[in-house]
Design brief:
- The chain is α/β, with parallel strands linked by helices.
- The chain has two domains: 142 residues, Peroxisomal Thiolase, Chain A, domain 1 (3-Layer(aba) Sandwich), CATH 3.40.47.10; 228 residues, 3-Layer(aba) Sandwich (Peroxisomal Thiolase, Chain A, domain 1).
- It has a nine-stranded mixed β-sheet, with helices on both faces. Strands 5-6 form a two-stranded antiparallel sheet.
- Strand 5 and strand 6 form a beta hairpin.
- The protein binds coenzyme A.
- The site of coenzyme A has 14 residues, from helix 6.
């Protein structure tokens, strides 16, 4: 039997700024990020075996499907016949594309794969974007009755805060940390620092969550180049090792779950990711977590195994800071860096690549050795985790 032992590395990364980018189209964003990653990797188009492009909502927001072909065409790669596929898994599309590309190299099908993620959400607004961004929920059992992602997160937050006697301040502190880190990230949508007072007193969105508990709706794109160990050796390349990739599912509808404040998909994926990587939680130098709403930041710390259920509030004051024991979201996270659905997971990989190659600028974590990336679909229906390191 053939033993698959082809290790996978990130050899280049690039992204656009995240934000309201009205002067750039979906295709402009995808190509800008892809070319930056390819240039950063120091490779040529002839080296690329395949493209995996992540996107969640272009069909209903931008009325553009066939994203794989679009990206290949506008990157100038169509003439070479390079396979280019779109990967859709809601807000976890980015990590899903990263994982598919990783597996394609592991299986020895390809040596060099470009993974991209793109979303363009701010061309529509008001109830139109609210309805479309809510399509990641269960349409028949949640969205049809008026539920939005913010409303679902608020229900979860209310029950969690009640059962564990956690106050609103703990949620707000998560956003304060994101904004502090985002203020030092040139690619972040929001560069303003937040005081605890500002975070606590912002306009209500879905009680108990206010505007500063919510990620924004964003435009943006990110890309990384993955390469096999064989290719790296032959071409004398250096990169960041993908130690593990893991995915798990939960019920789509929150009401079907055993506990609404337990992210079971995150728990299961984390166990697999740590086991496959052979790392312990103490080894992790930093994490990028999918905090589309502040409450998820707390739940993720718990379900990733860094705090007991109901106790993540103990970590949000000092431990999660850039210079803390367990830095969380050095990039600014979804709250400050932004939340272009399909680009988020790839953007996390761009940030981790920069951290682990010492190129994270003002957000650099000292002696960063291992990074954990957590990308989640909607309210937690799927979680995809990658552990990167030496
Ligand atoms: N945090 C901080 N500022 C925000 C913001 C956020 N989450 N969302 C918007 N803003 C800012 C805008 O930049 C804009 O600033 P400006 O006036 O200086 O230009 C201002 O607030 C108004 O922006 P607008 O787009 O009109 O806000 P809105 O009231 O329509 O939307 C939210 C605000 C919070 C409702 C919207 O960002 C939202 O729905 N977020 C949740 C996204 C979501 O559901 N994600 C799902 C993930 S599972």
């Amino acid at each position: 039997m053939k033993v698959l032992s082809n290790e996978v590395y990130i050899i280049g990364a690039g992204e656009t700024k995240f934000g309201e980018l009205w002067d750039k189209s979906l295709r402009n964003l995808a190509v800008e990020a892809g070319l930056k990653a390819i240039e950063n990797a120091g490779i040529y188009s002839k080296d690329v075996d395949a493209i995996y492009g992540a996107n969640s909502l272009a069909g209903i927001i931008n009325k553009q499907e066939n994203i794989g072909a679009l990206i290949a065409d506008f990157s100038g790669l169509s003439a070479d016949g390079i396979p280019s596929l779109r990967v859709e898994s809601s807000t976890a599309s980015g990590a899903a594309a990263l994982r598919d590309a990783y597996l394609s190299i592991k299986s020895e099908e390809y040596d060099v794969v470009v993974v991209g993620g793109v979303e363009k959400m701010t061309d529509i607004h008001g109830s139109d974007i609210l309805e479309k961004s809510s399509s990641i929920l269960d349409r028949e059992w949640e969205a049809f009755f008026g539920a939005t992602p913010a409303a679902m997160a608020a229900l979860i937050a209310r029950k969690y805060m009640h059962d564990f006697n956690v106050d609103k301040e703990a949620l707000s502190m998560f956003s304060v940390n994101d904004h502090l880190n985002g203020s030092k990230n040139p690619d972040a949508q929001f560069r303003n620092k937040l005081t605890l007072q500002q975070a606590m007193n912002a306009t209500a969105v879905a009680d108990p969550l206010n505007m500063m508990d919510c990620s924004p709706l964003s435009d943006g794109a990110a890309a990384v180049v993955l390469a096999s160990e064989n290719y790296m050796k032959k071409n004398k390349k250096e990169g960041v090792h993908i130690l593990s990739s893991a995915v798990a599912e939960d019920y789509l509808s929150v009401g079907s779950r055993q506990s609404i404040y337990t992210l079971t998909s995150t728990k299961l994926a984390a166990e697999k990711a740590f086991r496959k990587a052979g790392t312990k939680r103490d080894d992790i130098s930093f994490m990028e977590v999918h905090d589309s709403f502040s409450i998820y930041g707390l739940l993720e710390l718990e379900d990733l195994g860094f705090a007991e259920k109901g106790k993540a509030n103990k970590l949000v004051y000092d431990d999660i800071k850039l210079e803390g024991r367990l830095p969380v979201n050095p990039s600014g996270g979804l709250k400050a860096k932004g939340d272009p659905y399909g680009a988020v997971g790839v953007g996390q990989a761009v940030d981790a690549y920069r951290q682990l190659t010492g190129k994270a600028g003002d957000n650099q974590i000292k002696n960063a050795r291992y990074g954990l990336l957590h990308n989640m679909a909607g309210t937690g229906a799927s979680s995809i985790i990658h552990i990167l390191g030496e």
